[in-house]
Design goal:
There is one protein chain. By secondary structure, the chain is of the alpha/beta class. It folds into two domains: 5-176, Rossmann fold; 189-279, Pantoate--beta-alanine Ligase, Chain: A,domain 2 (2-Layer Sandwich). The chain has helices at 10-22, 38-50, 78-87, 98-101, 120-123, 127-142, 154-166, 196-201, 203-217, 223-235, and strands at residues 5-7, 27-32, 53-58, 92-94, 146-150, 172-176, 240-248, 263-271, 274-282. A six-stranded parallel sheet has the order 1-4-3-2-5-6, with helices on both faces. Strands 7-8-9 form a three-stranded antiparallel sheet. Strand 3 (53-58), helix 3 (78-87) and strand 4 (92-94) form a beta-alpha-beta unit. Helix 6 crosses helix 7 (154-166) and helix 9 (203-217) runs antiparallel to helix 10. The chain is globular and about 55 Å long. Bound molecules: pantoate (PAF).
Length: 285
């Protein structure tokens, strides 16, 4: 396995990817904010298997942090991340500075309505504008054939897919399954913020989703009942504060009242001061 080449500038990263495509190679892309864990590694493995070249970006994107969300606190571990990239045989890592990604005076952003106004967007009103802008910029630099995102950020996957469709971006967006710790908690860089006690309280998210799945299997198709059961479970945990618990349509993200075929149960819960999200596809068994 060769050490991945690390690129710091958009121009050098683009030249590498242009060269790969000119040589007839497919480019798979995994955008990340670093602090790589098994969830990211599963995306990178999948991308590795499906493409001739694997490019991973590591960039803590300032524009997706809202007021009061401390970007300085976000975990960073570039050398550990490079080891993880080596471990999955990535070809190239794009690790630009904020100054490289956002030139002074940058005033062009990608905004999306409707899908970004619900769920996390209702609580983090500027978040998806930052995500979509940086993802569009990264797509323009890398020009991937396929880009891989985790289902844990379900709404992010949906809004990126819609941007790609609406702006005719020539990339296939691949959503990969959630990777969980053995006890059920979804892998997330934010888990690093949890104290030992909070880490155990945080299990209430995946447990609530398991309750919804079980109730559905037993025949309960009314979302209101499933939401009530999930809320009830989470509310028993003292350190937990619910931002939202919802059962929504998988594409429109609008609430569904009765689950006909497929829906998504989505939650955002603060455990102490750490905001965690999780979700499960309902009704596809
Ligand atoms: O999911 C993430 O880590 C980020 O939102 C992304 C897609 C890398 C954009 O900064």
């Amino acid at each position: 396995m060769a050490t991945p080449e690390v690129f710091k500038t958009c121009a050098a990263m683009r030249e590498y990817c242009d060269g790969a495509r000119a040589g007839g190679m497919s480019v798979g892309f995994v955008p990340t904010m670093g602090a790589l864990h098994e969830g990211h590694i599963s995306l990178m493995r999948r991308a590795r298997g499906e493409n001739d070249r694997l490019v991973v970006s590591i960039f803590v994107n300032p524009t997706q942090f809202g007021p009061g969300e401390d970007i300085e606190e976000y975990p960073r571990d570039l050398s550990g991340d490079l080891d993880s990239c080596l471990g999955v045989d990535a070809d190239a890592v794009f690790a630009p500075t904020a100054r490289e990604m956002y030139e002074p005076g940058a005033c062009t952003f990608v905004e999306q309505s409707v899908l970004t106004e619900v769920l996390c967007g209702a609580f983090r009103p500027t978040h998806f504008k930052g995500v979509l802008t940086v993802v569009a910029k990264l797509f323009n630099v890398v020009g991937p054939c396929r880009a891989y995102f985790g289902q844990k950020d379900y709404q992010q996957c949906v809004v990126i897919r819609r941007m790609v469709r609406d702006l005719n971006v020539p990339v296939e967006v691949v959503m990969c399954p959630i990777v969980r710790e053995p006890d059920g908690i979804a892998m997330s860089s934010r888990n690093n913020y949890l104290s030992q006690e909070e880490r155990s309280d945080a299990l209430c998210l995946s447990q609530a989703l398991a309750i919804a799945k079980k109730r559905l299997k037993q025949g309960e198709r009314r979302s209101s009942e499933l939401v009530a059961a999930m809320r009830n479970h989470i509310n028993n945990v003292k350190s937990a504060t619910i931002d939202y618990v919802a059962v929504v349509h998988p594409d429109t993200l609008q609430p569904v009242s009765v689950i006909e075929d497929r829906a998504v149960a989505a939650l955002a819960v603060r455990i102490g001061s750490t905001r965690l999200i999780d979700n499960a596809i309902l009704g596809d068994e």
